[in-house]
Amino acid sequence: MDQVVNPSPGFQRNPDKVITVEPYIGTVTVRAGDTIVASSTKARVLTEAPYSPAFYIPFDDINFDQLRGTDMSTHCPYKGDASYWSVLAAGEAGKDAMWAYEQPFDEMAEIRNHGAFYASKVTIEATPG
Length: 129
Known about the structure:
Elements: H1 9-13, E1 20-23, E2 26-32, E3 35-40, E4 44-47, E5 54-58, E6 67-76, E7 80-87, E8 98-100, E9 114-117, E10 123-128
Antiparallel strand pairs: 1-4, 2-3, 2-10, 4-5, 5-9, 6-7, 7-8, 8-9
């Protein structure tokens, strides 16, 4: 990146922190019961120790008709501010099941316009290609 416009304060304080974002070769499908909420061959895998890897699915491959935005938000000093959506077909268990960094810090620009889901709230199937 030639010019940093929105730098991550986390990486500035801790330049040795490693977060990787790589394409997933295969298909990632997110379901709530029999309802497909998202399906993509363009998902990315974000890896950040000590957390489990997370699949980030392009917004274009997410069925937003199955989601409702919530007031929940969180802040990560490395990625930015996350917004949350509930998965309607999952009922109460689907509350705040998807998050996205709509305006991530520059270092995490690869996850802009991508959403990730909690595996404890929906079923995430990853089929290698």
